Amino acid sequence: MSLKKDSFSSLDKEYMRLAINLAKNQKGLTGVNPSVGCIIVKNKEIISYGVTNFNGRPHAETIALKKSKKKIAGSTVYLTLEPCSHFGKTPPCTTSLIKAKVKKVIYSVEDSDIRSSNKAKKILKLNNVFTKSGLLKYETRKLYKSYNYIKKNKFPYIIGKLACSSDLSILKNKTFITNEYSRRISHLLRYKHQGILTTYKTINADNPKLTCRINGLEKFSPTRIIIDKNLKINLNSYVIKNSTKPKTIIFHNSKNFDKIKILKKRGVKLVVCDMENDNNFDLKKLLKKVFELGIHTLISECGKELTYKMISKKLFKEFYLFQSHKVLNNKHKIKVLDIKKNLSKEFLYKNFVNTYLDKDTLMHYY
Questions:
Q1: Active site residue: 61, 82, 110, 301, which one?
Q2: How far apart are CA 289 and CA 292, in angstroms?
Q3: Would you place residue 135 in the very low, low, confident or very high pLDDT band (cuts 50, 70, 90)?
Q4: How many angstroms separate the CA atoms of 304 and 11, rounded?
Q5: Residue 250 pairs with which residues in a beta bridge?
Q6: N or C: which end of the chain has fewer CB within 10 A?
Q7: β-strands 37-42, 361-365: how paired?
Q8: Nearest 5°: phi and psi at 42?
Q9: What's the sign of the alpha-carbon dihedral 322, 304, 29, 98?
């Protein structure tokens, strides 16, 4: 039995959109695994659904199969991503689907993980499970943009963020420039990423918490990653006094053994990073180490210097620029017009995000 290329029905599309929405809701919370949505249908009735669990396990298929109160045999399974066919920490989802005696599996896009890529169709068909892919694939590809980048490059997917005044300025202290609505969006961005990148300069100047402070989402605060070559970080700063929840990692090249001892005692993870000829860290090598620590998605909240450097080195895959309606009259303000100009040069697309920020605006570069 075969279907024509355009033979998906309106109901097929409706079920897949539900699966896509499930996956979107969990995106950023599934660790190194992709967020997958699963809908199980029998006799035109949804009998179960699932989405990849927090930190990546169980998979969406496993959850949906286990929680169904009706018999799965003879059903159709809709998946946003090709089901895995390799043995990892859990058995392959293709095996689970075959054992459940499903009749059809329809998935949107192939998995970019080489252990499973383009293998599910053959395995399922050999076991008399009708299989077809490509349903709403253009919508789903956007969902897995970061996942595919990470799999291909073995490097973190990094999003930049900066808040400035209407005259494109920032301050060296923790004075808020944008309003409370913009700050809530910032917390949502933190919630969706495994790590948050900054420098000791930002810590010492602003004493930020770098946590997600939205009721109910506090436990999803990202791991704090701090670049501090000579360990100049203030030991009385909030992130050092509260260094284990969330976890705090400092990349350094210091021989200040007294400070190293204190930081370790407080639960800070210290990672030594080699210096380059200019006596600075090679950012790509440093970020590769971050990836090896299992942190694959990062949001950067740092000052002008590092932000500009990362834009120039094309390390950001997306960028969010919050702009307040305020004009700063402070004589110590720092102009960031050059950052905005560089963003326009480095990114192909940009659009205003309608997030109901009152008088603030939000530009998304991608």
A1: 61
A2: 5
A3: very high
A4: 50
A5: 226, 270
A6: N
A7: unpaired
A8: -145, 125
A9: positive
Neighbours of 142 (CB within 10 A): 11
Q: Is 61 a catalytic residue?
A: yes
Please say whether the beta carbons of 198 and 225 come within 8 A: yes
pLDDT single digits (tens) 165-218: 999 999 877 788 999 999 999 999 999 999 999 999 999 999 999 999 999 999
Residue with tokens 């029905």: 9
pLDDT digits (tens, 9 = 90+) for 249-294: 999 999 999 999 999 999 999 999 988 877 899 999 999 999 999 9
Q: What is the 3-state secondary structure (H, E, C) of the chain?
A: CCCCCCCCCHHHHHHHHHHHHHHHHHCCCCCCCCCCEEEEEECCEEEEEEECCHHHCCCHHHHHHHHCCCCCCCCEEEEEECCCCCCCCCCCHHHHHHHCCCCEEEEEECCCCCCCCCCHHHHHHHCCCEEEECCCHHHHHHHCHHHHHHHHHCCCEEEEEEEECCCCEECCCCCCCCCHHHHHHHHHHHHCCCEEEEEHHHHHHHCCCCCCCCCCCHHHCCEEEEECCCCCCCCCCHHHHCCCCCCEEEEECCCCHHHHHHHHHCCCEEEECCECCCCCECHHHHHHHHHHCCCCEEEECCCHHHHHHHHHCCCCCEEEEEECCCCCCCCCCEECHHHHHHHHHHCCCEEECCCCCCCCEEEEEC
Tokens 């570069």, residue located = 365
Instruction: Please check the confidence at residue 2 and state whether its pLDDT lies above 50.
Output: no
Q: pTM for the full model?
A: 0.92
